[in-house]
């Protein structure tokens, strides 16, 4: 653990007065962790909880700075064919870590998805089967190729796209399956690989943008499908501000990805007599600075993943008996990267709705997110595909047929019920999990009263 992390951990360890009271036998009310459960949530006039959200993110370290300075001074700022180029070093490191043959570093997770689809020659009229419960980038990468995102519903318990629902949507226009490991937890990959094999070896692109070091049956997420796409955007578990990578075991795809990410230029870097392979390519290159910051986190990844997992599983055990709270289910054989700690608030059992709960928890001092908005991708895609250019590809009837296939009751429910904590909140000391669980439990006990409050003046806390 770095100095900086340790310091933030120490800072977070101050909330122990209730524990001291408990040790001295002074508490009368039942004490779960650190909160006196006889008190009221702050939103009802009680006291907030003293819970450091965890270390704020990103957590800069000295290695990153050292690596950055090297890149800066050696003037290896861009991707170059210099053997000392940090981008190539990162690609080798990441491919080894993932247990695959190839890694192509790119400028973002969106670029990774876009390049992966380009490598399959995805184009107008092709259908990509994916999940609605994801960041907008998943759908956008498909739309950029003028292909059609075909959305399969999710398993409400795991938040993951349901392989059976996806399988039913396969037809002759299906170009690829694109499961997303949402929250960093594994999608049911067996189902996708099976469906792909039964349909003439359809490619499977894993959107593993949230899933660094998550596993499925012992294998790294992203390494199981035909290609795996990662994001190193600032919020991600491995981050350099903006960045991404595509991994694959397929030599031919790897070569295509290499070319696509740098304008099909052969040899890779401009020089005398450069030749350009005629591919739909672009500039998706990662800079030396991005690679330097990523390499500076090399030795922290495994330990951070371990801490997140330990804290997340502990938190789930603490939340298990709170009525109406349903922590994200991790499938047997899966290990989550815990990019998000997600759970559902079921109003009928909890006593108040998700939005009210979220405001009460935030007021108590625990910042969370309510997720991906209303998740109405049908309207979103319809609007984007109403342009004249799109109309030359998709008629009104085509879009009606596409929409008629899509049925997302679980996704819509998730959009109303989900709450997320961010990955770095799981890097806090274990006792913070007790505080979070207690705060949720305390809100539940007063949920009926909280539901009646006028919250029109609510203002969200700044997230560190
Ligand atoms: C972050 C993310 C992306 C996009 O990554 P960027 O680096 O932000 O472009 C794609 N898919 C998912 C599921 C993500 O979480």
Side-by-side strand order of the widest sheet: 3-11-10-7
Low-confidence parts lasting 5 or more residues at pLDDT below 50? 1-32
Mean pLDDT equals 90
What is the number of beta strands?
Answer: 17
Q: Could you tell me the radius of gyration in angstroms?
A: 24 Å
Strand content: 5-15%
- Helical residue percent? 25-40%
Helix- and strand-based class?
alpha+beta
Query: Which term fits the overall shape?
Result: globular
Task: Write a brief caption for the model.
This protein is of the alpha+beta class. Helix content is 39%, strand content 13%. Bound molecules: pyridoxal-5'-phosphate.
Task: Please tell me about this protein's structure.
- This protein is of the alpha+beta class and 464 residues long.
- It has helices at residues 3-12, 17-23, 62-74, 86-98, 109-119, 136-143, 163-168, 189-198, 251-260, 288-295, 301-319, 347-350, 354-364, 377-384, 388-391, 396-405, 409-417, 430-445, 447-451; strands at 31-32, 35-36, 102-106, 127-130, 148-151, 174-178, 205-207, 215-216, 219-220, 227-231, 244-248, 265-266, 275-276, 325-327, 334-335, 340-345, 418-422.
- The strands form six sheets. It has a four-stranded mixed sheet with strand order 3-11-10-7, sandwiched between helices. Strands 5-4-6 form a three-stranded parallel sheet, covered by helices on one side.
- Strand 4 (127-130), helix 6 and strand 5 (148-151) form a beta-alpha-beta unit.
- Helix 3 packs antiparallel against helix 10, helix 11 (301-319) runs parallel beside helix 18 and helix 13 crosses helix 18 (430-445).
- The model is unreliable at 1-32 (pLDDT under 50).
- Pyridoxal-5'-phosphate binds next to helix 5 and helix 6.
């Amino acid at each position: 653990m770095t100095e900086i992390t340790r310091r933030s951990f120490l800072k977070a360890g101050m909330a122990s007065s209730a524990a001291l009271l408990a040790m001295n036998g002074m508490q009368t009310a039942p004490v779960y962790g650190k909160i006196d459960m006889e008190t009221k949530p702050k939103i009802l006039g009680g006291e907030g909880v003293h819970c450091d959200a965890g270390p704020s993110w990103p957590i800069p370290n000295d290695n990153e700075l050292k690596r950055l300075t090297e890149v800066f001074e050696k003037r290896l700022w861009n991707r170059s064919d210099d053997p000392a180029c940090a981008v190539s070093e990162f690609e080798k490191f990441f491919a080894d870590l993932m247990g695959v043959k190839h890694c192509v570093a790119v400028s973002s997770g969106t670029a990774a998805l876009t390049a992966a689809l380009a490598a399959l020659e995805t184009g107008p009229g092709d259908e990509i089967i994916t999940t609605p419960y994801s960041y907008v980038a998943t759908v956008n990468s498909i739309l950029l190729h003028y292909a059609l995102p075909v959305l399969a519903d999710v398993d409400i318990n795991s938040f993951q796209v349901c392989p059976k629902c996806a399988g039913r949507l396969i037809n002759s226009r299906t170009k690829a399956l694109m499961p997303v490991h949402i929250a960093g937890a594994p999608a049911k990959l067996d189902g996708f690989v099976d469906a792909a094999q039964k349909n003439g070896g359809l490619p499977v692109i894993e959107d593993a943008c949230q899933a660094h070091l998550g596993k499925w049956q012992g294998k790294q997420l992203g390494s199981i499908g035909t290609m795996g796409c990662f994001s190193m955007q600032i919020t991600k578990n491995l981050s350099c501000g903006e960045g991404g990578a595509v991994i694959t075991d397929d030599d031919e795809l790897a070569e295509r990805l290499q070319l696509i990410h740098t304008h099909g230029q052969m040899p890779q870097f401009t020089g005398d007599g450069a030749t350009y392979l005629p591919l739909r390519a672009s500039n998706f290159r990662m800079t030396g600075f991005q690679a330097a910051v990523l390499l500076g986190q090399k030795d922290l990844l495994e330990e951070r993943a371990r801490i997140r997992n330990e804290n997340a599983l502990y938190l789930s055990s603490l939340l298990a008996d709170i009525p109406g709270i349903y922590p994200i289910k991790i499938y047997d054989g899966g290990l989550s990267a815990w990019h998000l700690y997600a759970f559902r608030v079921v109003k009928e059992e909890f006593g108040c709705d998700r939005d009210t709960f979220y405001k009460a928890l935030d007021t108590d001092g625990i910042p969370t997110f309510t997720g991906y908005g209303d998740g109405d991708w049908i309207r979103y895609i319809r609007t984007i595909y109403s342009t004249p250019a799109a109309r030359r590809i998709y008629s009104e009837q085509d879009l009606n047929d596409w929409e008629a296939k899509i049925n997302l009751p679980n996704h819509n429910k998730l959009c109303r019920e989900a709450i997320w904590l961010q990955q770095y909140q799981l890097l806090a000391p274990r006792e913070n999990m007790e505080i979070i669980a207690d705060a949720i439990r305390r809100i539940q006990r007063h949920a009926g009263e909280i539901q009646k409050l006028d919250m029109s003046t609510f203002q969200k806390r700044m997230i560190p």
